[in-house]
Specification:
The protein folds into 3 domains: 48 residues, no CATH class; 128 residues, Ypt/Rab-GAP domain of gyp1p, domain 3 (Cyclin A, domain 1, Orthogonal Bundle); 70 residues. It is built from 14 helices and no strands. InterPro entries: Rab-GAP-TBC_dom, Rab-GAP_TBC_sf, Rab_GAP_TBC_domain. One of its GO terms (molecular function) is GTPase activator activity. This is Rab-GAP TBC domain-containing protein.
Length: 250
């Protein structure tokens, strides 16, 4: 979209708030780069990263953050326990890590290096980097007792990560993040899918129970209302009968 807008300006086509032909020509010269960037990111999301990340129900995003949580449980158990204790869901804290593939989290130079590794190694590299960052900043995270505090700590940690070499070295260090085979990731993903399925089934049962209870209460309320109406009608009939009897006596 940006590329087409820039091209429109360069051709002198009407556009409100245009910055002039010079700027338009400059931006039009960048259109090829813009298009290349778009297709690279499209390939990254569709072919390299895990599937269904951008599904309408966010099932892919929820699944991959659950995978990350399970990996954290084995690789940095104290931090994982702290997140659970304070009800800090990483998917809610930093969904942009996945939805924007770090492009809105790391400095530009670090993002470029990390994306190179993700293209080369696949989605597992994304998990490696997340775990490495959580291990590196575990002490600070464990001091946060509230969600906004944890969000601020993580946002600052990623924004200040200018040393891409150190990050990637840690992300691929067995001493730092432990074993990270495809089998380990696959096992975590299988467990994550099973957990999410059980939670969805439990939520569906709870919702059905609530709806059933609501329907029963409404039926009971309507029944009581109908009974009250019958009693009122009987009272009116009795009153009219007494009135007629009095008139007859008179």
């Amino acid at each position: 979209v940006a590329a087409f807008l820039w091209l429109a300006v360069s051709r002198g086509e009407p556009q409100e708030d245009a910055e002039g032909n010079e700027t338009g020509e400059k931006k039009a010269s960048e259109a090829e780069t813009e298009e290349t960037t778009y297709w690279l990111f499209s390939c990254l999301v569709d072919d390299v990263m895990a599937p269904e990340i951008f599904a309408r129900d966010m099932r892919g995003t929820l699944r991959e953050f659950r995978v990350l949580s399970l990996l954290l449980r084995s690789k940095t158990p104290q931090t994982h326990a702290h997140l659970l204790k304070h009800d800090m869901d990483l998917c809610m804290l930093q969904s942009k890590w996945l939805l924007c593939v770090f492009t809105d989290s790391f400095p530009a130079e670090t993002t470029a290096r990390v994306l190179d590794v993700v293209f080369a190694e696949g989605h597992k590299a994304w998990l490696r980097v997340c775990v490495a960052m959580m291990v590196a900043h575990g002490d600070a995270i464990r001091k946060a007792a509230h969600v906004p505090d944890a969000m601020a700590i993580l946002k600052r940690a990623f924004a200040e990560q200018h040393d891409a070499d150190a990050l990637l070295k840690a992300a691929h260090s067995r001493r730092w993040v432990g074993a990270f085979s495809r089998q380990v990731v696959a096992k975590a993903r299988t467990s994550a899918v099973a957990q999410l399925r059980r939670e969805a089934e439990a939520a569906a049962k709870a919702r059905a129970a609530r709806e059933s209870n609501n329907a029963r209460r409404i039926a009971e309320r309507n029944k009581k209302g109908a009974g009250g109406g019958d009693e009122a009608e009987r009272a009116v009939s009795a009153g009219e009968k007494e009135k007629n009897d009095d008139e007859k006596k008179r």
